[in-house]
Amino acid sequence: MSIRSRITAILALSGACAATALSQESRQGLIQYPSISPDASQIVFSAAGDLWSVPVGGGVAERLTVHPGIEGQSRFSHDGSKLVFESNRDGAQNLYLLDLVSASDRLSAGDITRVTTSDRAQQLGGFSQDGKRVLFSAYMYREIYRHPRMYSAALDGGPMERVTDAFGRGPETRSDSEDIYFNRGYYYPHRVAYRGPGNMDIWRYRPSDGSFLQLTQFDGNDFEPNLLPDGSMVYVSSRDGQYNIVRLEAGKTDQDPGSVRQLTHFKPDANNPETIAHGVRDLQVSEDGSTAVFVVWNTLYTLDLTDSRAKPVAVDVQLADDMAGDRMYRNNISRNVSEAAVHPSGKAVAEIARGELFVRSTSEDRPTIRVTDTPFRERDISWSPDGTRLYFAADDGESLGNIYSVTVTLAREDLEPKPEPEAEEPEAETTEEEAASSEENADAGEGDTPESEPAEGDEALDDEDASDKKDKKDEEPKIDYAKRWSEALRFEIETVVESDSLDFNPIPSPDGMKLLYLKDRGDIVIRDLETGEDRVIMELWSDPDVQWASDSRHLVVAAQDLDFNSDVFIVDTEPGDDGSLPEPMNITRHPDIDHSPRLSHDGKVLTFLSDRDNENWEFDVYAVYLDKSLEGLAGYELDEYFKEASEAAGKLKPIDPVSSGETEQDDEEEKKEPEALTFDTEDAYLRVRRITSTPETESDLVMTPGGDRIVFSTVIDGERNYVSVDHRGRDRKTIKSGGVGDPRISLDGKTLSFVSGGQAATTSPSGGKTTNLPIDATITIDREAELAQKFHEAAGMFGLYFYHPTMKGLDWDAISERYRQLVMQTRTQDAFTRLLNLMWGEVDGSHTGTGGGDAFSASSPNNGYLGIDFSVVPSGYRIDAIIEGGPIAEMKHPPSVGDIIVGIGGMKLTGANTESGLHDLHTAMEHMAREEILLEYLPADSADGTTKLALVTPTTFNTVSVLRYEDEVAKRRAEVDELSNGRLGYLHIRGMGLAEVRDYERDLYAAAHGKEGLIIDVRDNGGGWTTDILLASLTAPAHAYTIPRGANPDEVTKDNYPRDRRLIYAYSRPINVLINQHSFSNAEIFAHSIRTANRGKLIGTQTFGGVISTGSFSLIDGTTIRRPFRGWYLPDGTDMENNGAKPDIDVPQTPTDEAAGRDPQLEAAVNELLGRIDS
Fold first, then answer.
1. What number of other Cβ atoms are within 10 A of residue 1136's Cβ?
2. Residue 1051 above 90 pLDDT?
3. Averaged pLDDT score across all residues of the chain
4. Of 516, 552, 556, 553, residue with least CA distance to 536
5. For the domain bounded by 960-1041+1051-1105+1140-1174, which CATH number is listed?
6. Residue 687 CB: number of other CB atoms within 10 A?
């Protein structure tokens, strides 16, 4: 048994044991989001995506909902007869109402009705004071300010309404109080250690007078407020380093001495020293104020709030037996292919689908054979050049990746009957006469040799022929490996490279004697397959692009330096006389990115992708001749060279099988080494030529071995296509419409393989017929085993790549093991995602997160949006504002502000069987996006109540969000113009990408040209990468100015400068920069840079402190995990992470300001800048 087979067997056994233990004990799904009945007798919670109820004293839980969707938070109505809950069963997370039936101290489910109908996700709050409406928060309309607002929805289907114009999250109230308690701040509950301006605080809103009061100002997170009958409040706080429950006295804030008392004291202890997943989460309190319910780790707790000495009590929850019935499931992964490698002979293909390895013949309608059947993730397939074996990488439950090889042990031909060997005829006996005759012939003299006897030389030839025939007869028949792989049935998997590191991307050398692979973050290692010796060729911090040269000695490598610039190198892997490796030869030597190098078989032509002549990351194809003699060839001569190179490559065949061991005779024979290639590298960077020049980026580059065809993805007429061109970039042929992945070219250059639409295919690099190579792969997946693999890879990869070298001093392995125990109890992707995010929170870092995967997903209703602000009035929906460019604004005869909408699409909004007499407008707009509908409205000046009809085409959420953004920016621009009497300009930078740079340059000229100063607003800017481009505009040195003939010198300012001499429009006049706690990532780098360069003042509130460069990686089921890999530091060494840019003038934005429509930060920026200009 191979090492891998043993590991698989051991893990399968241990996994079975673990599964048994879990099913016998507590593998019940992650307990989340408990709510408690008004009298504190019943608890409802979410587990395995459904809602369950259990008596407060514990026991067997009753399932309340059964649906493949995810049910999340829930709340009991004030009288306990109903339960409102979150669910994504109909698309976006909306709110639903469940009638509760109580009998014999148990709860059971009645009817379920939908409360909200929207394509926006909604987060449940509580019930309104009168119990007729439910409170929630949502991004119902995307605002510049990156925070949700609070809403209420009528339980009877009446209108959804905004609670206040202030921003807030998680509104809660009681039946005996009008006050609404809510949170403000970034919703990062998994970051218990975060201290900064984005922390969550608790506020109170009093509807009767519109007042707001900040109740907590602790620098960490305070959230999940619950009001008690005596006016005090319990909530979750991170003030002691873990989340615990604290109580705030009635009528006090946390700034009042002695007003806060801690009720729980959960923290890691001797039994669990690493982590408790940050402590308390999902706090709720009964309506009578007697009991709190919450979760720590995976235990449900209650706390008696009437006894100041009470300790948390664990609730023993037992879930129904049917929870264990869904461990195994079937999944058709036939269209999930991610890699495909055609056998060197072209007769078979290996494919990876959802982490499993398959092979099949390339002939039509051939069966699929599964090679691996493990919970691990197989990837990075590559054939040996002799076609005898297939290499791949995979994790094994212990390491993140080992290297393996596969060989065929049983093929179809082995099942066919073998012909019986022919029997040898016995030698005839020699008679005395024949013997005598032989003796006479032997004694005869030389001259007496009969004519019929062979001459001496002929006799020797006959002897050799006989010997050859005997040798050939004794030889083993030649193995047809191509045929065996195309008809393979069983396999042997052997471990090639095994270590505690991440080993991946095996690439065998063309002579089959060596195996290149990558280690950890990108070290290039070569293993001698005969001796097993490893040599590190290059130590790198990021994955390189690597290709063997045909001489099996040189490599072509694209690698990044510490400026994050990638160049292409030729690397000689043969040590010198002193045992050291020659210095890699930099071929491209350019400060822009050069990657994806492809070398021709003769080593004379190198192609690669580069963004040297475009915007960042907009790549074209480039080439350079590594044989300078090609430079001087005439066009026809060059064509002849490529024709001959292509013909020579077309004759290439797989090499003869490479023996795993050498015989004594082999050792004595001199091995024929391939002739080393030579390269003209010294001035290669000067001879690089551009092959393509398209307005979009190129990718997926391959080149035929002869260098005559270059294949790549690009955009043509707005559509992604896979195309090929000749060596000049001409003669374009479309290979495939749409995107492709994993493109590969065969040894002879005649076959191009790729993956498209989750299916492997082959074609010619010159275009033509495409042959699909589908697999038939329906597999059985063990949820537990896959869950373990996913977690192992997620935790390991995050720990390997996270930017901080010590993981901020944490024992990451111990923390990972602790979370693994909890993750293995989850039943849904939703719970898995939440726990991973809690684990990322241990490092207290930004740019982390988990999403996607095999989560339940239903189509959202795709609501229509009219582009208006409205208020609910008794007769309908009054138009308060019309957004420029929106559907209402674009009507031929639009309604006006003050008019009342009374009907949509033929449906009357009035006369509903609801308390308000109105149907909900959002519900009426379901499925209305881009559909022409009839709008009925009542003009504000209608004396007799006559309504009007008009046609309108509602738009989508995304479209109306852009229009709302532009509308808000226009209002701010007008306000600055008014406040400054036209002296200052204003622009907002929405993000830090190239599109926003173009907007910035346009808006800069329009807003600031001729102005005395400029307000630059990066509040609520989520980041990107363009700080230095903006600085090129704002910090261009004023080294000269110009005066053309005919201009009045007295009217020329000293910043007049020819715009064509600069890369971007420059602005050198005074500026102020607006920032807030939602300025994030590269927007923070921009703010820091303004201060470092002393370019202007920062006005507003401190930025969040979330500055790490991040990438991402995917798990076997498509779960995507962000991977922060690069830290950013100020010149004095300060880590920008958790150290946001502080304003020169600190001006908070309060709910009171928002409700009143004031922007005090903008006002302060204008006043400061005018004062500075005038001073």
1. 22
2. no
3. 92
4. 516
5. 3.90.226.10
6. 15
d(CA 885, CA 969) in angstroms, rounded, equals 14
pTM, full prediction: 0.90
Which of 608, 605, 602, 624 shows the shortest CA–CA distance to 551?
602
Residues 391, 382: contact at Cβ < 8 Å?
yes
**For residues 896 and 893, what is the distance between their CA atoms, to the nearest angstrom?**
9
Q: In the numeric block, which tokens belong to residue 758? A: 């989750």
User: 970 with 988: CB under 8 angstroms?
Assistant: no
Task: List every span in the chain annotated with CATH 2.120.10.60.
Answer: 31-324
Element (H, E) at 380: strand 378-383
Superfamily of domain 31-324 in CATH is Tricorn protease N-terminal domain (2.120.10.60)
- 1013-1017 and 1071-1075: which strand pairing? parallel
Tell me, what's the pLDDT at 454? 42
| Pairwise CA distance, residues 1069 & 1075, whole Å | 19
Label the pairing between strands 233-237 and 244-248: antiparallel
Going by C-alpha positions, the residue among 127, 111, 147, 129 that lies closest to residue 73 is 127
pLDDT band at 463 (very low <50, low <70, confident <90, very high): low
- For 991-1047, what is the HEC assignment? CECHHHHHHHHHHHHHHHCCCCEEEEECCCCCCECCHHHHHHHHCCCCCCCCCCCCC
Q: How does strand 211-214 pair with strand 201-206?
A: antiparallel
DSSP per residue, 893-930: S---TT-EEEEETTEESBS-SSTTSB--HHHHTTT-TT
Tell me which of 3.50.50.60, 2.30.42.10, 3.40.50.300, 2.60.120.260 is the CATH number of domain 868-955: 2.30.42.10
Q: What is the pLDDT of residues 543-585, one digit of tens each?
A: 999 999 999 999 999 999 999 999 999 999 999 989 899 999 9
Q: Are the CB atoms for 56 and 42 separated by under 8 Å?
A: yes
Are the C-beta atoms of 823 and 835 separated by less than 8 Å? yes
At 337-372, the pLDDT tens digits run: 999 999 999 999 999 999 999 999 999 999 999 999
Question: Where do you find CATH 2.30.42.10 in the chain?
Answer: 868-955
CA 607 – CA 625 distance, rounded (Å): 9
Instruction: Identify the band that residue 1061 occupies on the pLDDT scale cut at 50, 70 and 90.
Output: confident
pLDDT at 441: 44
CB proximity list for 574: less than 8 A, separation 6 or greater: 553, 581, 582, 676
Q: Let me know: does 1026 contact 993? Beta carbons within 8 Å.
A: yes
Q: Is the dihedral of CA 282, 283, 286, 292 positive or negative?
A: positive
Closest CA to 712 of 689, 685, 688, 693: 693
Side-chain half-sphere CA neighbours of 638 within 13 A: 17
Phi, psi (degrees; rounded to nearest 5) at 840? -60, -30
- For the chain, residues classed under CATH 3.90.226.10 are 960-1041+1051-1105+1140-1174
DSSP codes joined into one string, 457-484: HHHHHHHHHHHHHHHHHHSPPPP-HHHH
Do the Cβ atoms of 75 and 128 come closer than 8 Å?
Answer: no
pLDDT in tens, 5-30: 434 433 343 444 343 333 334 446 89
What's the pLDDT score for residue 142? 87
**And the tokens for 648?**
């020579």
Separation of alpha carbons 662 and 657, rounded Å: 12
Residue 419 has pLDDT above 80, yes or no: no
Of 888, 885, 884, 893, which Cα lies nearest the Cα of 952?
888
Using 50, 70 and 90 to split pLDDT, how confident is the model at 854? confident
DSSP one-letter code for 674: P
Pair 593, 617: CB distance under 8 Å: yes
